[in-house]
Write a structure and sequence with these properties.
By secondary structure, the chain is an all-alpha fold. It is 75% helix and 0% strand. The protein starts with a helix and ends with a helix.
Length: 154
């Protein structure tokens, strides 16, 4: 049986400690902290003891996006060493995300979601995005997908 995401992150953490890989260790600790924050929030809202795998994928996706924005800002500011550090963290986080869909796979997924939801116009965009997020969290950039869905429904 394959390890779930939390187990893989925990195993990566132990491995980073053994290998004395400070960058990897720090990044994995940040991931664990973000997941624990969400677990605590879920308990506070009465949604169970821990967030599910889908929520963990969402957390990882958000962490990648934050680092991409930081790397861009550092590059614009001429701080290339800091931009490089952000990129190293992105690579570590992405190891735990499923493979990103190609452009043609994203297009096909959008078509399927529109067909599944019976979407006919822009007012149905929320349903289409919800269907995509339910199936493809961590596999596509929803910031880029939103305008594509909007264009298809317009």
């Amino acid at each position: 049986m394959p390890m779930d995401l939390r187990e893989r992150i925990g195993a990566g953490l132990k491995e980073a400690m053994r290998d004395k890989d400070a960058t990897r260790l720090g990044t994995l600790r940040l991931i664990n902290a973000a997941i624990k924050d969400q677990d605590i929030a879920a308990r506070g809202e009465g949604r169970g003891e821990a967030v599910d795998e889908q929520a963990v994928l969402g957390i990882l996706g958000k962490m990648v996006k934050q680092r991409q924005e930081s790397a861009r800002a550092y590059e614009e500011g001429g701080r290339l060493e800091l931009a490089e550090k952000e990129r190293e963290e992105i690579a570590i986080i992405e190891e735990f995300l499923p493979r990103q869909l190609s452009e043609s796979e994203v297009t096909a997924a959008i078509d399927d979601a529109i067909a599944e939801t019976g979407a006919e116009g822009l007012r149905d965009m929320g349903r289409v995005m919800g269907a995509l997020k339910a199936k493809f969290t961590g596999q596509m950039d929803f910031g880029a997908v939103g305008p594509m869905v909007k264009a298809r429904l317009a």
